[in-house]
Amino acid sequence: MTTTDAPTIGLAYDDDGSGPPLVFLHGGWLSAASWAGQRERFGEEYRVITPDLRGHGRTGASESRRYSIGLLAADLDALLSELGIEECVLCGLSLGSMVAQTYAARHPGRIRGLVLAGAVQTFPPVAIPGPMKRLLTPLPMLASSLALTGSGATFRSLLSTIRPLTGGPWLARDSEVRATALETVEAMPRDEFKKVFAALYRFRPPELDRLSAPARVVYGEHEAPPVKRQSRDLASALGCDVHEIRDAAHLVNQDNPEAFDAVLTGLLEEVER
């Protein structure tokens, strides 16, 4: 692990292997460790880069009072520029999918391939008109919950609202994967949790019509139906296939890494033709 001296913020990241660059972006309130299986699987053929996004993991808190998906995409651009990476295959999950969408829209010529996993176009993944969304903002309630119970309990409360949609654990079907993710969320400072939530809530999907690179959209069999719908909409906009991974929930790359890696391998083979 090394740390950049990027103009915006030094992002902690892992940089393994050699070959064409393959960049993975983790989900909200998690960390680069969630891509450990993919680092091992693809590290012999590719240069695998897994950053901890601003506010997360080893990167930790920043002095910025307000986060946005655009800011996280700018951090990624600074990191890749620092590493001398002009083109890459970019893979993002959940929050990471938002950052990947934004980066790809801003820099379509630098994307050789794109994978969006557990991908959403809005948060929450339902259409709410702009004025109403501002009026119904959950941020004051979220702040109260964080102050009273902390990051871990607040996150569990959010999970409880999703479970009725899936009939079982939404975050991950694998109990060890789920427990590790919850421990990671628990360690996040309350202020950082709130800033990340606000960035998710304010996200507006970018236009991806300038992107010509091959793409894939992936979600788990046990993903929440609203996420599946938005993922299919993204796939339609990108003109690419949707892959539903069996025996997997939101953290699809960890629940069923073999199936997820097979989809990614197919994309990489198409990119290298």
Automatic annotation (TrEMBL):
One of its GO terms (molecular function) is hydrolase activity. The keyword Ribosomal protein does not apply. Gene3D superfamilies: alpha/beta hydrolase. InterPro entries: AB_hydrolase_1 (IPR000073), AB_hydrolase_fold (IPR029058), AB_hydrolase_sf (IPR050266), Epox_hydrolase-like (IPR000639). The keyword Repeat does not apply. Keywords: Hydrolase. It comes from the Archaea. One of its GO terms (cellular component) is membrane. Coiled coil: none annotated. Residues 20-256 form the AB hydrolase-1 domain. This is Alpha/beta hydrolase fold protein. The lineage of its organism: Archaea, Methanobacteriati, Methanobacteriota, Stenosarchaea group, Halobacteria.
